[in-house]
Amino acid sequence: MNKPIGRVVAKSIKVIICLFLLDTVFGEIQRHVFFLQKSGKFYRINYTMDKSTEDLLIFGSSHAAAHYVPDVFEQELGLSCHNAGVAGQQIIFNATLQRIALERTAPRMMILDIDTYGFYLDGYQYDRLSDLHPFFYKYPDIIGKVLDLKSRLTKYALKSKLYQYNSTIVHVLRYGLSPQKDRKGYQATFAQLQRPAQTMKDGGEGQPPPVQQTRPFDKNLTAALEQFVINAKQRNVLLVFTFSPTLEYEGSSAGHAGDLIRSIAASYGIKLFDYINDPHFLGRYELFADSGHLNDPGARLFSKMVADKIRAEFPEPNRD
Amino acid sequence: MRFDSLYYLGFLSIVVLLYYLIGSRFRWTVILLASYYFYASWKPEYLLLIAGTTVINYFVAVVMARQGEKRKRRKFLLISLASGLGLLFLFKYFNFFAAFVHELLNGAGLLFKSPLLNVVMPIGISFYTLQTIGYIMDVYHGKKEPEQHLGTFAVYVAFFPIVLSGPIERSKHLLPQLQRENKIAFSYENVSRGVKLIILGLFYKLVVADRAAIYVNAVFGNTDKHFGLTFMAALIFFSFQIYCDFAGYSSVAIGSAKLLGIDILPNFNRPYLASSVKDFWRRWHISLSTWLRDYVFLPLAYSFSRALKKERYLSIRTDRIIYVCAILITFFLCGLWHGANWTFIAWGGLHGLYLAVENILRVKTRRNLLKIGITYILVLLTWIFFRAASIAEAFEILGKIFTKPGSLFIPPGPDIVAPIYAGLAILLVLVIEFKQEFFPSRFSFFNNERELVRVLSYAAVAAMILSLGVFDGGQFIYSQF
After folding, report:
1. Which end of chain B is more exposed for a tag (fewer CB within 10 A), N or C?
2. Which chain B residues in 380-419 lie under 8 Å from chain A, judged by CB atoms?
């Protein structure tokens, strides 16, 4: 039995050495080109973490990225602004991004655009935390704790450099070859949604779909939202919650989760601007790029409305 | 515990270590405990079900074998079939048939409240039920002596590499390997082959299937928003998603068993290079197709041949009538086995129809690229029914493919990378399989005579998995069946 064991051990060592070499060489190359990016999702995340010094930071998912035009806020409020919204990411990711940014900078104001569907116990938010992997060794303590929510083994898997930069190479090439225009993080869309003959969901005008059924909340997600508030308060950052506008009527203004977020906002004294079912956007196909996202004209109108409301609620947010 | 998780790799390492450390007489205990632990990691309650199935079939087989006459043995066969198929019906098909009956009666004006069961289907039940039925049938026909050791039989039913999604093993093949007298020595060849199969399986699953799934799910999740060209692209992706998902799973299963020195039946053999649908079924889900052939098709054909005495009916040769009837029923059941939905029945029915037509037209399986292409397209059309949520949706997609090509959906922004990765990965799979099919002895990497090339091959595939794999992908598709 010793002979085959010896062969297996010898071969395993050779394979592991080869894998280590491949991982080190190609991982280093990937790391190098990854942090050379000048546009794209990962560049924007890196910018928010390491470089953002603006007065106003906007957090959230693709809704935040596509709905808040920094130029409009700068013009209306006189605050420099960066849109830190990341497509597909919800509260856990945003709280992590905010915490890392706050280690280095203290903006005067933050807006957190909240997707009400992002608080239920369905696990998809944890899968998307892989966007944090490339930054793990920059902020191991903060990111490590968050990745533990998904699996305690992730930190060990991240010893592999290739795994850290998993699936990023085509992204790097894509934005290297065709860089995005820098709009201070804002993801403009210029398409216009066509009005269908009859709306798909409600089956006709004036028939709101039923209110969402009650589903259990994920406590980690509500804790992350509270942590977001606490982080902001600790650095004396003025914080505002928003619900983005919707094209189609949503029963009871996003139902169950909406109530939870409203109660958290109220308990910490945070203003919440609710634009769900706002008549300026409801059924206005010309302001939407798709059924969930505003296009550029829609985003500019919305940004102006939010800025006006901020000005009304906080008369001089740019003053020290 | 999923096959593509670090937990499974850790679990497998511990099992392999214990297996070879312990004497061969007690190895069954290691595998049985490991198998029950693995199964319980999904839902512990269902351990009772698999244990119950084991005990019933063990005693039925032992008692049945003692009966001299076949007539007496049939009674025991029916007990086993009723218990196995009864549980399968209860967990998998009851709600489907209840809803069907409800619709029928309501259509006829008879109001009737459908009694729906609120149960979750036990994972792997479709697979281990077929495996135990195969065993009981073999004992009934006297092709296999009943297994006398309950522990060994329990391992046969619940063997962890195959309990969730097969390959569906045969008693004559697997049971002798599990017996205590079978002293399996630790061998370099088994470990080397096992590791290679596990790595390749993970590559198929994580790099190809889960990557293709991103585009497929984006399209099939919004069928009303997409058109023909997009559906064609999504279907091609889906054909490789389901192949690489299931072949990847099978490869990890076979590799895991190989580490324990146990051979498992192959399940796939480059199915998209088949030159006819008949050839496709020799290469696709081989363990199921051969099971259906031996335990459904041949018994049906045999009983039809006893019933149809004349040489021709309506000027059609009787053997052809028998084949067509038996193949249509077999593939109807094949579809139904996959899931309690009309879409699966349509998928199976379509394959049965293809095979019947091929038989009538006497299609030869001599290989050329045109035949391979035609076969692939025919199979691709059936995947529409397999993937669609309903028959109506499948016809809507078919209609759009033939009448509304529209423009190709290209995911916006950073999401574009998913189909690019998937396309490249599929291309790589095609190159690998084309090479294996047409140049089996050339350009060999894993079996190269130079050790450096062999070692680098393992390391390179592992590096590709780390670099390109989707680690947040979904469950293996066939585990839901």
Report:
1. N
2. 412-417
